[in-house]
Amino acid sequence: MSVPIHAGIIQRVLTEYRAPFFDMLAQRFGRGASLFSGQPRPAESIAQASGLRHAHWTPGRNRHLFSGGAYLCWQSGLLAWLRSADPDVLIVEANPRYLSTPAAIRWMKNRARPVIGWGLGAPAAPGRLAALRRWWRVRWVSQFDALITYSQQGAQEYQALGFPANRVFVAANAVTPRPQNPPPSRPEKATVQDLNLLFVGRLQERKRVDSLLRVVAALPPHQRPSLTIVGDGPARPTLQALAAEVLPAARFLGALHGAELDAQFDAADLFVLPGTGGLAVQQAMAHALPVIVAEADGTQADLVRPQNGWLVPPGDLPALSACLQNALSDPRRLREMGLQSYRIVHDEINLEKMVDVFVQAVQTVMEG
């Protein structure tokens, strides 16, 4: 079902992985969608999309202020784009660090048009300034007509701020469409040594691939699976040097895409993401792989369940080691858990479902 409106979307950065979502979403609006975004900081190493096929994209200019916990961003040209796009509804990142967003919200409100915030949630603030910070968050979210978040945890956090439950929508984070092919048929593996662990992602310090190398290397030789690492990035030389020291058999294949990447997913028996991030988790699940994932912002909890994988604290080597040994103790169970992964992304968490939730939120705010 399409909605007969024109939607506006503001993003700090148009990432390569998010482009298919915005194109699919634009096709659900009768008058299309327009998107405004700027550039990342050079140190972020974000792969940007070169364009959109169905949504109309206007590149702006991001002015980055400060760094770390003090980071702020101003998007130049935002109001000029808004006047030109003239959307019926606006979807923005619900991040108060983006200083130009309030002006866009006011522009829409002055025309009695709804604004939807899209964010991770609002965890309780600790410390002596907790009450002040909570007051500010309540004031911030009250500007929106609806909120979209990735997880049930995020939804509960927004509701704890007093935001109406019927205006909070959970759109599980998805980067791939519903799988069209059946799950791959994997042969039975006789020993743990025949199993293949897979990591896919950008090689950065926060991905904690060094922890994975150390944990696999610490296993007894007769209980040690092979390890394949797909990806590139600034940490690759350091990781390869570590692997040469502790786990020479580890394979570094560099960045792969398309059929080459699919082949590595199909050849694996278990996907492991020991650090933050994790866009490849859903891809792995679409290839019927069980997963071990570091729990970070709560968005993983809806995707990774006892039926299809394990969540571990990021940076906790003993926990990662115990979890890996548990997973490897029963290869047949891995097959069963992999099929559950496939079912989850086929039936529950995929691009189509994510788009459906956004459309539902838009319909709700347009109806008043």
Map the helices and strands.
Blueprint: E1 7-13, H1 19-26, E2 33-38, E3 56-59, E4 61-65, E5 72-76, H2 78-85, E6 89-93, H3 101-109, E7 115-119, H4 130-141, E8 146-149, H5 152-160, E9 168-170, E10 196-200, H6 209-217, E11 226-230, H7 236-246, E12 251-254, H8 258-267, E13 270-273, H9 280-286, E14 291-294, E15 309-312, H10 317-328, H11 331-347, H12 351-366
Parallel strand pairs: 1-2, 1-6, 2-3, 6-7, 7-8, 8-9, 10-11, 10-13, 11-12, 13-14, 14-15
Antiparallel strand pairs: 4-5
Helix pairs in contact: 1-12, 6-7, 6-10, 9-11
Explain what the structure shows.
This protein has 368 residues and is an alpha/beta fold. It folds into two domains: 7-176 and 350-366, Glycogen Phosphorylase B (Rossmann fold), CATH 3.40.50.2000; 192-347, 3-Layer(aba) Sandwich (Rossmann fold). Helices cover 35% and strands 19% of the residues. It has helices at residues 19-26, 78-85, 101-109, 130-141, 152-160, 209-217, 236-246, 258-267, 280-286, 317-328, 331-347, 351-366; strands spanning 7-13, 33-38, 56-59, 61-65, 72-76, 89-93, 115-119, 146-149, 168-170, 196-200, 226-230, 251-254, 270-273, 291-294, 309-312. The strands form three sheets. The chain has a seven-stranded parallel beta sheet with strand order 3-2-1-6-7-8-9, sandwiched between helices. A six-stranded parallel beta sheet has the order 12-11-10-13-14-15, sandwiched between helices. Helix 1 crosses helix 12 (351-366), helix 6 runs parallel beside helix 7 (236-246) and helix 9 crosses helix 11 (331-347). The radius of gyration is 22 Å and the shape is globular. The model has no long low-confidence stretch (mean pLDDT 94).
